[in-house]
Amino acid sequence: MAHVVFHNKVGGSETLEAAVGQPLTDVLTAHGIPTNAVITLRNGKIVPEETTIVGEHDVIELRQVRHYDLDVTRRPARVVYGVPDPVYVKSVMFDTAGQLEHRVEQFDEESFVRYVEETFVQSVLSHGVLNQGDSVVIGLSGGRDSVAFLKLLERTRHRLPAFSITSVTITGLPDWEEPATFAAARASAEGLGIDQVIVDAHDIERVFKLRRPFVEAMNSVVGGESRHLNMVVGHQVLRRMLEDHAQRIGADTVAFGFNGDDLVASMVTWITSGYRMGGIPVRQIGGMRYIFPLYRIPKKELTIYLELVAPELNRQGTPGRFTTGPQERSMAYAMADHLYGLWPGIDYYLFESFATMQRYMFPLVEEKCRVCEGVYVLQEGVRNPIDICDVCDFFARQEFS
To answer: What percentage of the chain's residues is helix, strand, coil (to nearest 5)?
Structure first.
């Protein structure tokens, strides 16, 4: 019979449940022990965790290498507020004067809907995300995030400042015109009684001065060596077209439907790349305000919310080739999801700390692209093309424009 023991750094030892034939990494994961935290001895000999399989007669010792209490994350102090028949459990790890407490609240259907709507309202009000008299353009793709934003507005607008809103749906690629997603966009706009403006490929070709059809240019991107830029190009095109429409109608604010874990994943990329990002949940670039009204609500919560209040809007198509990013994007999202699991509520701390960092970082240096006329932020420590944004520079080098 195998015997697996964990020796921690606070003087304790613990026998771990393990099955013969089980990879040791699975044993560690199941017990909340990071591989990097231990040295492993099997029958008295140091072995790597990644290649070790639990044998029938093995004696495996796991010795923690750094002095800290791993049970702070493995077995945190918990306070649970329960309800019968919960549909969702919200966990937040509170750090109060260095003491951690894991508070867990269970929600039934009715209380969960109230929780999401209250989170949305307070997030919008507490940071001046939406102000009295704002003229807002929202990108309405029909995806769950933008649809959930409009549904939240529909149900809470009486608690928000008075502002005008225009929804813009950008077409031009098959993924952006998927029937179920497009129908969700139209239905959610109708729910608020607002017009849905359609921007098509001809508008994109006009703004970016493309000499080839937009879909042909994007086919070249996803099918060539620059496929890793697929999402970069797509997002810049979407942003610029929202700006273009906002400028045409005199709107001063562009709203993006990025949810909480979208923005945490962006912060993972920012920290690991060093590329500049503007503020969250509000940033000001080139005379335009950009807001992120869903920054306090993770994707999981938005999806459950839609299922409870508007299930007909939650039936959408799968991502296509133009909305699938490179592997590094998947890694950033996976890291964000792991962070939420390891430190529930980490987004609250990250966004507040990021706001503080914005105040002491070098001021943003802006340039205006001579092609698409979009305003962009120069990046420190890298070569920035002169008077041209990355995407227009890419289009020019590929002879698309």
So the answer is: 45, 20, 35
